[in-house]
Specification:
There is one protein chain. This protein is of the alpha/beta class. It has a domain at 108-174. It is 30% helix and 22% strand. The protein has helices at residues 49-56, 84-87, 102-105, 112-124, 128-141, 147-150, 160-172, 190-207, 218-224, 242-247, 252-259, 321-325; strands at residues 7-18, 21-33, 38-42, 65-74, 77-78, 95-98, 178-182, 210-214, 227-232, 235-241, 308-311, 314-316. The chain has an 8-stranded mixed β-sheet with strand order 6-7-8-3-9-10-12-11, sandwiched between helices. Helix 4 (112-124) packs parallel to helix 7 (160-172), helix 5 (128-141) packs across helix 7 and helix 7 (160-172) packs parallel to helix 8 (190-207). The longest helix has 18 residues, at 190-207. The two termini are 38 Å apart.
Length: 351
């Protein structure tokens, strides 16, 4: 019998109803994540990465937000129809989230020990006498310096890296099967960033936890991910294992992301860029949503390209994916369709 994925998202649509119209922040997203693997969801700000992650734990503010349709299966159980009360044991107990900014995610009026201990009391029902020793054990596991002292400190007394370690300890406190890490290394220096990523890797290997990593940093993806989902304008435009995506991207948007990265192996006067901006989620263009910025855009791109398997395990939603697979290059220096990038490319929307 095949192994059931820890997480499976099927045709998820999360919309926000605003005075400017309906923002289709997540519009038909599907992917799965297996035990012990890390799936990275990448894309520019405004592509729907964070909304996807918040939808999984049903943390979308309603109203104005709404999960319009689709399924979110956690070990085969659909979370979408669950009530707030039914979701309580899921959050923290079965799936936990490491938020983007620990300084604003931790409560400033409670100590680190009190906040980690609360999750243990609610989900694991440990007696008060064992709570403190368990919190110290968790802080030790995430390599917090002087855990016996840190447990009684408040968030403002800790550095950024320490706060993030406390958030990871909180996420691990109930042995969840799924950890969602939303930009876990934002605002951390490169040394602390490397330590946090190594810590997440060790936790995954030790506990067999599945990790959903939300990031825009392709260097982090290369270092930590097994599989990659590339999102643009609320949709998945490419997905596959990390080696395939990095060796041969099969969507012009993914190609543009790689071409915009600085390279240490060659000298360039100017970095290449993807022209224009991510369109507003209330004003997505018809057809391929990247076509207003794409150097290969033609009349056929006004038709919606399906997400199809181009190579084994490697999918792309582009009419030219087969050409990219054949080795044809996409040039982001000279736009192939002058003026097209300026059409319908107002910035903004939900991240």
């Amino acid at each position: 019998m095949p192994d059931v994925p820890i997480l499976e998202i099927r045709d998820l649509r999360t919309y926000f109803h605003t005075e400017h119209g309906t923002a289709k922040a997540v519009d038909g997203v599907s992917f799965s994540l297996s035990r012990g693997r890390t799936l990275a969801v990448v894309g520019e700000s405004g592509c729907g990465k964070t909304v996807t992650s918040l939808s999984i734990l049903k943390l979308i503010p309603m109203p104005p937000g709404e999960i319009v349709s689709g399924q979110i299966l956690l070990e085969g159980r659909d979370l979408v129809p669950l009530s707030p009360k039914e979701m309580q044991p899921v959050r923290g107990g079965q799936a936990a989230m490491i938020f983007q900014e620990p300084a604003t995610s931790l409560n400033p009026v409670f100590t680190i020990g009190e906040q980690i201990g609360e999750a243990i009391r609610i989900h694991r029902k440990l007696p008060k006498s064992q709570e403190r020793s368990e919190v110290i054990r968790l802080l030790t596991e995430v390599r917090m310096s002087e855990p016996e002292r840190r447990i009684d400190q408040y968030p403002h007394e800790l550095s950024g890296g320490m706060k993030q370690r406390a958030m990871i300890a909180m996420a691990l406190s109930c042995n969840p099967k799924l950890i969602i890490a939303d930009e876990p290394t934002t605002a951390l220096d490169v040394t602390i960033q490397a330590r946090i990523l190594e810590l997440l890797r060790q936790m995954r290997e030790k506990h067999g936890t599945a990790v959903l990593l939300i990031t825009h940093d392709l260097g982090v993806v290369a270092e930590t991910a097994d599989d990659v989902v590339v999102m643009y304008a609320g949709r998945v435009v490419e997905q596959g294992d990390v080696r395939s995506i990095f060796a041969r991207p099969l969507h012009p948007y993914t190609v543009g992301l790689f071409k915009s990265l600085p390279r240490v192996d060659r000298s360039e006067e100017r970095l290449q860029e993807i022209p224009g901006n991510v369109p507003s989620p209330t004003k997505f263009p018809n057809g391929c949503r990247f076509r207003t910025r794409c150097p290969w855009a033609v009349a056929k791109c006004a038709e919606d390209p399906p997400l199809v398997e181009i190579e084994p395990g490697h999918k792309s939603a582009c009419w030219f994916a087969a050409d990219l697979a054949a080795g044809k290059d996409v040039n982001f220096v000279h736009h192939a369709t002058p003026g097209l990038a300026a059409q319908g490319s107002s910035a903004g929307g939900v991240v």
